[in-house]
Every structure is written in structure tokens, then in C-alpha cells.
Amino acid sequence: VHIVFFFSSRRRHTRFLPVSWARRCVQETGINAEYMGIVHQIKQSQKVFLEGQTMDDDQEIKLEERRKTVREQAYYMKKAIDTANLRDALRYSTYMLNELKAPELSPKNYYILYMQVFDELRVLESAFREEYRRGRRMADLYESVQYAQNIIPRLYLLVTAGAVYIETNEVAAKDILNDLLEMIKGVQHPLRGLFLRYYFLKMCKDKLPDEGNEYEGEGGTFKDAVSIILGNLEEMNKLWIRMQGSSSNRVKREKERIDLKVLVGENIVRLSGLQGVTLEIYTQEVLPKLLEIISSTKDVISQQYLMECIVTAFPDEYNLKNLNTLLERTGSLNPNCDIKAIYISLMDRLADFSEENKSEIENITQDMDIFQMFKTNIDNIIEEQGQTMELRKLLDLQVAFLNFTLKTYEKRTDYVNQILKSCVVLCEKQSSTSFDEDSLKNIVKLLTYPLESLSITILSMDEYPNLMNYLPFTKRKEVAVKICQAVISTRHPLNNLTTVNQLLSFIQPLLKEEQSFGNQEPYEFEGEQQLVARLVHLVENNHPDKVFEILNAFRQPFEAADEKRQFYTYPSLIFAYIRLARQLKIYNETQGTYKKAGNAEEGGEENEEESEPQETQAYLKPELNFKVVFEIIRKLADSIASGNAELGIKLYLDILQIISECDPQREHDEFSYEIAEAALTLY
Amino acid sequence: FFFLMIRRPPRSTQSRSSAASDVYKRQGQVSIQLGKNKKLEHTGIRVELIGHIEMVYDKAGSSDFTSMGRELEPTGVLFQDKTYNFSFPKFEKQYESYYGSSVKLRYFLRVTINRNYATKIIKEVDFAVLVPATEPEIKKDIQMEVGIEDCLHIEFEYSKAQYHLKDVVIGKVKFMLVRIKIKYMELCIVKQEKYLTGQANQTQTENETLQKFEVMDGCPNKGDVIPIRLYLAGSDLTPTYTDVSLSLIHISEPTRQAEISYAVFCLKKKN
């Protein structure tokens, strides 16, 4: 005999009661105790079954039910329309619209239902038009749709009828629109109200009086349109914030609200689409009112989103001219807002604008010190929120600022330097010594972005190396690579010793390895060293002395480096010296030399006269003569040759060639002999 | 087996007196048709015009308030079908016909055939009496502030106190204090019948909700003003003579109901 106990889950105590009851049964009747286990099992499985039906399944079912009803009623409605039975059409449309009451649907599902109803209402809308064409008075229709007893169908029908009524031009557009705006106040439920007002917006899209459209004049002016949309926005904002409700389920509510943000933003989009909203109107009327609406509540989600909408919806020019107001107001939003996101969005947009409108931005920047505006406000943000905001986020802000500055102020290295300085300050404040990956990535960006447009002029920024110091070795190497690439791609001639020294200090990571560095891919290493080698080829100067100085400057770190680096760097250096020798020869032939007391220049005509005026030192330093150069080359080649015979031979041969070129007097014969000997030995 | 028919002449022949007075002439024809029987013995045939107030729940309290009679035929025998003309001039319409749920005010014509050895034969035919009313002079609006202590406090106004049947109720409701969760707000048109019960000598009131009209969905904030626009043409209403009151019902969670009502006169528009 199996005894099975069923009980409802409604009664809270049933979990215990039947078991104890079962136990008693067992005791009194003597039934085998193992049956008790069945009791418990049933209870558990029942419980699991009930909990297994999640909210989502429930929603799906309900949604489908409602959609089905909408389909059915729409079908009857269309049949009534086909037989020109307006009364029945309205009746069925009312049944259909009643489904939009749907108190149980989540916002996402409600949206699906709404879209379906929206499509069906289009049929009704054209039926209204058809009725008007047949001679029905729109005023009567407008009245009769208001007989509906339930408010949701009534108002949806009213908006639909109102839209067609506006088209007839019998009554001023603004009057109808204002009436609609007033009547839709009746829906105070957040979700339903939002969708109804969204429907209102959609239906009025082409019917707002605006500059140059058919509804202007009698129908109103664009200012009426502006005030209507702003009124709708204000109410929608209130409803949207009301959705937050009590503190229960906060996260879920926030997510739902974010899902619906587009509904509210539509108002701002509509505003920006009005022809009548010129820069002046925007500055004097629209923007102040929008900012008022935003700051009328403390709601984070609303403030954040609406501000972002303003930045993205309106032309960049408008926002640029109102930059100070925007920045200040953004800074004064609820501190929980992601202010920097708004700033970044703004700066990115303005950066793109600058890129595309070079001449305009020049004019604008002459009138307004945009850089300073941004800088002041950003510094304020950092000051106020620096304690709590993570470094990487602050650096995100700086990166966006840098990007904007580079695009807007193309040549201003001082601005860039200022930004780098703020970053250095930020990094200093950072207490821990190791930065997180994102912060490091940001620092790399900060150091590499300027290279594109400013290239070698970064060397003049004194904050640059300071910031670079905060990077670990690998990242610094990354930056160094970018620097080399920038210099090489612009083919900037390296003709200044100080510049070169600076450059060399910047690319230190490429020249010398740090202890903690691990293994590197060979091809990567090769690439890096080749970059360094190519740098050498950029060295040029009219005056051989200078070239000699610079090449020596290169030679120092090269000599100090290890062999595998020298494999790449020495050859290019050697050829650079070879070139120098040629330059020397030509120089001797054309310019002549001014001999200082002491070592004479080999060969060539001597020019006793004073050479050119002081701007180029016409004399060569005593150290610079062929012999010296050849010695250097030879030493370099020797180092290579010891490691790499093949390359060594080639180099020796190159040396011999240049010697023969430069030395018709054959004064370096002995020297050449040695080189040849070395070459042959190798061979 | 007797077939009695009262025919009224078509409308056009009804005479109308001047607009000021409500005196009409009621006239028509009574025709008596004998069925299978070829003769009818009677002690008199009479036609009466009666105005009658009927208490549905209290039959004893019913009474006639007006009665006029005509003798059509003295005692005699009828051998064939006969038609009689009748007319009641100078019929004063005091009240309008009303068919309510607890009270009925009817006008009817009653033909009675009295007989000695059998029950009398009676036929009644109702007719309607309408009394168009003039628009009252005073046009004031209604404004009221009501509420539930510490929970809900509203101020509502209607533009008029009296409406005609094709009129629009226009007004607004302002929420001064909202501390409860309101689900929705409706405007109800309530028909109220008040009558005196003869025995207990007190007035009894019966309410019937004719129409519900949803005016707000959801819960408003403090300071929100909700517009009201209710077209009376969309509902079937009986005019005048009964007080038709509008009541504002708030339905709040959990389904508690608070009702604030205010009497409003309803008139039929004069043709």
C-alpha cells in the first residue's frame, strides 16, 4: 500500500504538518516507515515544479495571449473598415487597444506589443482619412473617439484622430497638438504613459508647425512646436523617473529604465530636427530649457542620458558655441553621473568636427579659448572626483582631451605639454607603484597620439619623458618604437645634436635592455633594431662637422650595446660614416678649408681665404679628417667581422672602395692594405 | 377572445398649444373587435387617461396623480365590431414619464369593459410624456476640495453645475497630497432615485451607476493636474426630473474605494 499525500503549497505549514501526520499514521497503523520518504519527495518536487516556472515563461505566455487578441480584434476592425462601418471599426479598435493595458508585461515585452498595435493603427488612421474624404466632419470624429470609456483606448484613438485632423488644416495645428498634450496627462502610469507619449511624438512627427512647412502661420510657429515638445519631454522625464519606484529591485528597475531611454530621447531628436531651431534659438531658448529640465531632478540615469542626448543630437557647431554652459552644467550634475563619459563624448565629437571643418574651427578658436575651457573644467573634475575615481578613468578623460587638442590645435605643442603635465601629476598621486593595465595603455596612448601630427617636435616637450618614466620597460619600448616610426615616416632630417641626444634618450629602451626583460620574438627584435638603424640614415647636415658630431652621438650607445644589436646598428652607422667621407671629399673640393694650426687636411685644394660668413662654421674641427673617419669605420667593421664573417667581408670591401674614392693620393695605402688583408683572411 | 386596440392618431394631427403652456389634447380611437363570439354584453365601456406613480418595491405606495375619464358606451350589448373616437382636451402635463428601477411614473390610456357576470376587460396602453425644460439661469461651476486625512487630498472642479444631454463635462482634478498608491480614477454617472415610503415616512435613495468613465490611469505625483472631458452624448441618459449625479471614484490598491460625489442636474435640450 502506498500512501501519497497531496497538499497545496499555499498553506505555509504544510511542509511540516503532513510529514508529522504521516509519521503518526505510520505509528498508528504500523505501515512501513519508508513510505514517509515518499511524502517528502513529493513535496520537494512540487516545490521545484512551481519554482521552475520562471517569470520569463509567464511573461512569454501572457504576451502571446495579448498578441493573439490584438490580431483578432484588428482583423475584425479591418473588416469593419472595409465595409465603411466606422462605428464597429472604433468598437473593435477599442477592444484591441484595451490590450495595451497589460499590467503584467515587462517593458521589453510591452514594446513588442506596442509595435504590433502601432502597425494595426496605421490601417485605422487611413480609414479616418478616407472618412474625411467621404465628407465626415473631423470635429465629430474627434469627439466620438472620446466616448470610449477606458482611457488607454480613448487616448490612442484621440491621438490618431488628432493627427488626421491636423492634416485637414481645418483647425490650427498647435491647438490640436496642445489639446492632445493636455489630454494625455490622464495616463500617469509610468510604462503606459511613456509609450503613449512616444506614440504622440511619432504621430506628430510631420505635423509640427515649423519654418517653411505647411502648418506654419495659422497653425502656429516653430516656437509652438518647441514648447509642445519640451512639455512632452518634461512629462516623459517625470514618468521615466517614476519608474524607479521604491528601493525594492533597484537594479532591475534601472535596467528596465535604460531599456526605455530611447523613448525619452526621441523628444530631443525631434527638437533638433526642427528647421526653426537656429543657433540663436538654441542658445537662448532651447538649451536653457533643456538644462532646466535636466537639473530639475536629481535622478542619475535621467541626467546622464539627457545630457548625452544633447551632445549627440544637436549640431557640433551649436554645442561648440555654447561650450562653457555645457561644461559647467555637466560638472554640476549629480556626482553619481558618469560625467567623464559625457565629456569624452563631447570631445570626441568636437575632435571629428575639427578634423572635417578646419577653416571653421580656426575661426571659432580665435573667438573662444576652447582649450582653456576644457582644461579648467577637467581640472575641476579631477580635483573634485580625483579621490574616488580610478586612475584609468581619469586618464581616459585626458586621452580624449588630448585627441581633441591634437585635432583642433594642430601645432600647439605647448597645449599637449600641458596635458601631459596634468597626467604626470595624476600619476604622481597614484599611491601604488604598479598601475593597472588600462592605465598603462592610456599612458601609451598619451605618448603616441601626438607623434602622428607633431612627430619630432615631441622632443621639445619636457613633460614627455616624465610621463614615460611611469611606464614599465616593455611599454616604454613600445613608445620608443612609435617614436622611431614617426620620425622615419616624416623623414625629418636629424641635423641638430641636441635633438638627436634627446631622441636617443627617448629611445633608450631600444638601445639597451633592462634586466627584468624576458624573451622577445626574433622578428620583433629585428624590426626594432632596423628602425633604430634607419634613424641613422636621417642624419644630414650641410656641415660635415655637425654630421660627425651627430654620428658620434649615435656611436656611443651603439658601442655600449650588446652584439646582437650591433649586428643591425653598426652597418648602417658604417655607411653613414662612408657617406660622411664622401661629403667631406666634396666639401674639401668645393669649400676649401680654413686650416687651424696643426693637422693639415689631406689632399684637395686649399683655400686660403676666409670662407663664408659665420652662419656655417667654415672650418672643420681638427679631429675631422679622412684618417679619423676611416679608423672609426674600420673599428666598427672589425667588431662585426668578429661575429659575422660574411658581413665583415662585405663591409671591408665597402671600406676599400670608399678609401679609393676619397684618397687619390693613396696616402692611406697602408691602412687599406691592412683592411684588405683582414678581408682576405676572413675569406 | 376579445381584441382591444387603442389607436392614436399620427403625430401631425396632435394639436399643440402655445409653447408656454403644457396643455395638450389627447385623442384617438378605440376599436373593439369581437372574435368568435358574435355578441358582447356589458355594463359600460369607458376610456380613462391616467397618470400613475408606481413604487416597484412597495406596491401599496403606488398612486394615481391624475385621472380623466370618458364614457364610450352605456350598458348594452355589442353585436358587431365598433370603433369609438375619444379626446381628452386640456390635458396638463405635470410630470415627465419616468421608468426607473424603484419608481415608475407612467401615463397610460385604459379602456375598461364592465360586465355583470364576468370579470371586466381592461386594456392599457402606455404613452410617453416629455416635458422639455428651459435652461436655468444660473451657471456656476463646482469646486471642491476633498480627501482622506493624511492619505489623499484632491481639489476638483467642473465648469458647470448643470448640463444638457449633449453637453460636455469639462473640468480638472488637482492632486494636492498623494500618499497612497492609486491604480486609477473614474468618473461615474449615477442615477439617484429618492422617494418617500408611505409607511415609514422617510426618503429612500437608490443609486444605479449608469456609466463609468476612466479618467486617469496610474498614480500621479503631488501637484499633477488631470483634465476631465466627458461627452454626455456618448452615454444613454434620462434627462431632468431625476437628479443625476456625477461621482468621482478613486480605486486604489488594494481595492479600496473612496467615493466623492456631487449632485449635478441634467437637462434635456429644448428642441
Give the topology.
The complex is a heterodimer of chains A (683) and B (271).
Chain A: H1 17-29, H2 35-52, H3 55-82, H4 86-98, H5 107-133, H6 138-144, H7 151-168, H8 173-183, H9 190-203, H10 222-242, H11 250-259, H12 261-273, H13 279-295, H14 300-313, H15 316-321, H16 323-331, H17 339-356, H18 358-367, H19 370-385, H20 391-408, H21 413-429, H22 437-454, H23 463-468, H24 473-490, H25 497-506, H26 508-511, H27 522-537, H28 544-560, H29 563-590, H30 626-643, H31 645-662, H32 669-682
Helix pairs in contact in A: 1-2, 3-4, 3-5, 4-5, 4-7, 5-7, 6-7, 7-8, 7-9, 8-10, 9-10, 9-12, 10-12, 10-13, 12-14, 13-14, 14-17, 16-19, 17-20, 19-20, 20-21, 20-22, 21-22, 22-24, 24-27, 25-28, 27-29, 28-29, 29-30, 29-31, 30-31, 31-32
Chain B: E1 2-7, E2 23-34, E3 40-42, E4 44-55, E5 63-73, E6 76-78, E7 82-92, E8 98-99, E9 103-114, E10 121-127, E11 142-148, E12 152-158, E13 162-164, E14 168-178, E15 182-196, E16 203-217, E17 225-231, E18 243-252, E19 256-267
Parallel strand pairs in B: 13-19
Antiparallel strand pairs in B: 1-2, 2-7, 3-6, 4-5, 4-9, 8-9, 9-10, 11-12, 12-14, 14-17, 15-16, 15-18, 18-19
Could you explain how this protein is built, in words?
- The complex is a heterodimer of chains A (683) and B (271).
- Chain A has helices spanning 17-29, 35-52, 55-82, 86-98, 107-133, 138-144, 151-168, 173-183, 190-203, 222-242, 250-259, 261-273, 279-295, 300-313, 316-321, 323-331, 339-356, 358-367, 370-385, 391-408, 413-429, 437-454, 463-468, 473-490, 497-506, 508-511, 522-537, 544-560, 563-590, 626-643, 645-662, 669-682.
- In chain A, helix 4 packs across helix 7, helix 9 packs parallel to helix 12 and helix 27 (522-537) runs parallel beside helix 29.
- The N and C termini of chain A lie far apart (105 Å).
- Residues 1-19, 30-39, 45-53 and 594-617 of chain A have low confidence and may be disordered.
- Chain A is mainly α and 683 residues long.
- The radius of gyration of chain A is 41 Å and the shape is elongated.
- Helix content of chain B is 0%, strand content 61%.
- In chain B, a hairpin with a 6-residue loop joins strand 15 and strand 16 (203-217).
- Chain B is elongated and about 80 Å long.
- Chain B is built from no helices and 19 strands.
- With 271 residues, chain B is an all-beta fold.
- In chain B, strands 4, 5, 8, 9 and 10 form a 5-stranded antiparallel beta sheet that branches. In chain B, strands 13-19-18-15-16 form a 5-stranded mixed beta sheet, with no helix packed on it. A 4-stranded antiparallel beta sheet of chain B has the order 11-12-14-17, with no helix packed on it.
- Classes of the chains: A mainly alpha (683), B mainly beta (271).
- Chain A binds chain B through residues 101, 143-144, 146-147, 149-152, 154, 182-183, 185-190, 192-193, 238, 242, and chain B through 184, 211-221, 224-227, 229, 231, 233-235.
